[in-house]
Write a structure and sequence with these properties.
This protein is α/β, with parallel strands linked by helices and 506 residues long. It is 38% helix and 20% strand. A 7-stranded parallel β-sheet has the order 9-10-8-11-12-7-13.
């Protein structure tokens, strides 16, 4: 699938849908709206986010050989397992995943704060499974994994099935797991009540119900979770403000209700880190996690990602411009060995994927950016090579797609794993000043006054769906001198305390 072509189809379909019910009679307004729609009023240029490559942490087999993991983990944690191919292939870990497993073995609370596509779930699933393997299954609920939404719990359920329910003889059904989020049938709830799993996936709202309701399944879960070993909060950065306070109290109630004197708290997050040096960020993440868990998280147990380049870096010389110029006119390399040495692939990784931290020289993720537009990557490449922006954009897209098709032989991951983010807006309306048609100021940006002239107020317009005639939407209110005045009102504002007016300016 070509994601860029898919994006074009989505934009065209949305444009047709939008225009199908927006009828505008006034020619000047219609031309303005059409022009701004063409310029991306409701669908700005998409941005590209390139997932970087990570430093290797060895394979699961390496950790088993070192005694960090149970022998059975060698068969359980393998990639590309299927009923037809249950043995799978060796699973290679990222460095931050290995560091998380080592932190788990130490017994302390820890937080993994890494970006999208970094395999955060393995940072807690592997230690939990290892614990159950070492201590035996069927001893009650050993781990509560809490998600902010059901979609994440459902996704993780599928991942656990791939690891724990598929494999060679003797490697399956060694660790039990269940989901309890409110989506379950009565039969599934009865199974949880009668046969509590080793790992229970839930969400924070359902966990609150489990601790407070007196239903049979809830009391059975609390009873089975006595001496709970792991409490995992996935996507910790989502718990802010009042919700963060609720989850912090919930963590304390879990510890008390489950008599979890040896509870190990784990969190994952993508966006907790803020301004400051890496050490300052780790201290701040540790402070927030400690506050939520009600138990200390040491800064050294805040684990970040360690990035590496997937392509060979190029030097900033005149030769680079010549090489890029030649590549714009050619197809991307067809194999991994040549692709990772390709100058355009290297330039794309530098532009979309990686940047260097000024103070430390550490590789960090680059800000996502668009391909098109004055600030887009195609404009940068055009300035460097004296080629047109259109040719540069096509070359960038072809190279990104080729990088996604090519798989690294060691990891099985694409050389370039990228995301295309397209934002769609439902739009608001057109705003106009109260003047004759040929004199009035119109804009699609919501504001109170004509720019630079506060004596000319702006009012939202509504359009007749039959003929396209525009009307100002207002409400009446009492002015400072007691006189009745009209003020702007959105069409869906149905407050009964004011008088509504819909009128046409003649």
């Amino acid at each position: 699938m070509n994601v860029f072509e898919l994006r074009e189809r989505l934009v065209n379909d949305y444009a047709d849908y939008t225009r199908s019910f927006v009828v505008i009679r006034d020619e000047r307004i219609r031309e303005r709206v059409d022009r701004e729609l063409e310029q991306g009023l409701l669908w700005p240029e998409p941005i590209v986010q390139l997932n970087p490559a990570f430093e290797s942490g060895g394979t699961i087999d390496d950790l088993v050989d070192e005694g960090l993991l149970h022998e059975r983990c060698r068969q359980i944690f393998r990639r590309n397992k299927s009923p037809e191919h249950p043995e799978g292939e060796p699973l290679r870990l990222h460095r931050h995943q290995r560091e998380a497993i080592e932190a788990a073995r130490s017994g302390g609370n820890y937080v993994l704060t890494t970006g999208t596509g970094s395999g955060k779930s393995l940072a807690y699933i592997v230690p939990i499974v290892d614990h159950v393997l070492r201590n035996g299954t069927g001893r009650g609920i050993r781990a509560l994994v809490v998600y902010p939404m059901n979609a994440l719990a459902n996704s993780q359920l599928g991942e656990l099935e791939k690891f724990l329910a598929i494999g060679p003889p003797g490697s399956t059904d060694l660790v039990s797991f269940r989901r309890f989020t409110g989506q379950e049938t009565q039969e599934e709830r009865d199974e949880i009540r009668h046969s509590p799993p080793d790992i229970l996936l839930t969400n924070y709202v359902m966990l609150e119900y489990i601790l407070t309701r007196s239903m049979d399944v809830d009391t059975a879960v609390v009873a089975a979770a006595q001496g709970l070993r792991y409490l995992v909060l996935d996507e910790l950065h989502t718990y802010r403000g009042r919700q963060g306070a609720d989850v912090a109290l919930l963590a304390r109630r879990v510890r008390e209700a489950c008599n979890a004197s040896e509870l190990q708290c784990v969190a994952t997050s993508a966006t907790l880190a803020g301004a400051g040096t890496q050490e300052e960020q780790r201290r701040e993440v540790a402070r927030i996690a400690s506050l939520i868990f009600g138990d200390p998280v040491e800064p050294e147990n805040v684990i970040g990602e360690t990035l590496r380049r997937a392509t060979t870096p190029t030097s900033d010389t005149a030769d680079l411009a010549d090489a890029l110029r030649a590549r714009i006119e050619a197809e991307p390399p067809a194999n991994v060995e040549r692709f990772v040495r390709d100058p355009l692939a290297s330039w794309i990784e530098t532009t979309f994927g990686l940047t260097t931290e000024p103070d430390t020289g550490r590789l960090v993720r680059a800000e996502p950016r668009s391909i098109h537009g004055d600030d887009g990557a195609a404009a940068l490449l055009a300035d460097l090579t004296d080629r047109s922006r259109e040719d540069c954009a096509r070359a960038i897209e072809r190279t990104l797609l080729q990088g996604y098709r090519l798989r690294h032989p060691d990891t099985g991951f694409p050389v370039f794993a990228f995301r295309l983010h397209q934002f769609f807006s439902r739009g608001e309306t057109v705003y106009a000043s109260l003047e004759r048609e040929h004199e009035r100021f119109t804009t699609t940006e919501e504001q109170l006054f004509v720019p630079g002239d506060r004596s000319r107020a702006l009012y939202p317009l509504a359009f007749c769906r039959e003929c396209g005639q525009e009307y100002y939407t207002v409400r009446t209110a009492a002015g400072e001198d007691g006189a009745t005045v009209v003020v702007p009102r959105h069409l869906n504002d149905r407050r009964a305390s004011v008088s509504h007016r819909l009128f046409r300016r003649r």
